[in-house]
Amino acid sequence: MKPSLTVVGGGLSGCEAAYRAAAYGLKVRLVEMKPILFSPAHSNPDLAELVCSNSFRSDDLKNAVGLLKAELRRLGSIVMLAADQTRVPAGRALAVDRESFSQLVTSKLGSLPQIEIVRDVFQPPLNNQGPLVIAAGPLAEDALTEALSAITGAENLHFYDAVAPVVTKESLDLSRMFFADRYGQAPGGDYLNAPMDKELFVAFLNALKEADQSEKRTFENERYFEGCLPIEVMAQRGVHTLAYGPMKPVGLIDPKTNQRPYAAVQLRREDEAGTHWNIVGFQTRLTRQAQMRVFRLIPGLENAQFARFGSIHRNTFLTAPKVLDPYQRLKVAPEIFIAGQLSGVEGYVESAAQGLWAGENAARYVLGKPLVRPPEATASGALLGHLTRDSSNFSPSNITFGLFPPVPPNITKAEQASFRQNQSQSLLEDFLREIDYPLGP
User: Fold this and answer.
1) CA atoms within 13 A on the CB side of 245
2) Complete domains list, the chain, with CATH
3) Which of 19, 28, 2 is nearest to 357 (CA)?
4) For the whole model, what pTM was predicted?
5) Could you tell me if 103 and 68 are in contact, meaning their C-beta atoms sit under 8 angstroms apart?
6) Which residue, 21, 151, 156, 244, is most buried by CB atoms nearer than 10 A?
7) 148-168 pLDDT per residue, tens
8) Residue 115 dihedral angles phi and psi, to the nearest 5°
9) What is the b/e burial string over 387-399, where b = at least 16 CB atoms within 10 angstroms of the residue's CB?
């Protein structure tokens, strides 16, 4: 009997994990509940169904997601192989014919003798089932989430994701902002503050009320936590809700006027180097176009470039830094690997990448080989690093350059993208030679 591994979930991350493990000659049992049971968002019985956009975003290597896709191609990704073969015209983006894409992934995995595709609902408990990769996705079935909650602690499993926008520091007009903490709690101030007078605040409030919102899916009920309301919901509650909430000016003095502003928007650094900044408390359901238009009314953000847009949506994910080790295993159950959006990544490409490395290490675990982790200056390593950095306010993330280590200070802005690309590719090649990486099944 060949050593075996079970992968739960036939989405992008589960397919990638199964394909990667098969490269080691393992017998892989891929358990997919469709068509026995469909989640509210799924309708196609094929594997790797794309339930949202058909776009894998930019293919430009100057973007973090473009660099991650290039790495996946080099790593022999089944998702990238299928995407490249089913792509449709989309400018600089990689977009696919979604049905042809899913059909191709299903066909390729189904043709491999190492992989058995089991159409059934996976039955907990999670222990005593041998090595597992759980890639059940953000709408995981109830019994599975209950089992994950029991093994990780209910406080570490979340079902609704609220994300504030992130902007690049280089796109901000710092002359219109000031560094300060409320009541001067930190010397020099850790927060960037954008002050507003009453006239601008009222204009901003009205723009929020009138802005377009993303369409809610039928299974996404508006059951928000009071401590984490969408910014536009707070705006609808009255003129004082924001001014006494996330835009309260209490404890802040604008050094230009020596007065407390009428309202203030605070930005908190997203990465150690301070290249990306989070707009605090601005989780939102506004469309991307509306976010760009409305949030650019904030002083200093007139030309803001968004590394991540705000969102609020149903999403099952773990507090990864608390429950996962550096190899995507549950700390309390090292035979269980977590893949895809359950682990705390966002996006098709990111889910595939994280699934690939979960499959790599699950295969190594089964075979008794040392577990591995790509260098953090690679796109793969930067993404995985996000899952293990200590964080008191962990939330799922797409790949951005803010997750990468800082570039050396002598590298100019114009040179940064090329530097990261060359460094990432060089480090990845050295790493693959070091671990004797088998390209594919």
Assistant:
1) 21
2) 4-161+314-435 (3.50.50.60), 166-309 (2.40.30)
3) 19
4) 0.73
5) no
6) 21
7) 999 999 888 877 666 788 899
8) -110, 125
9) bbeeeeebbbbbb
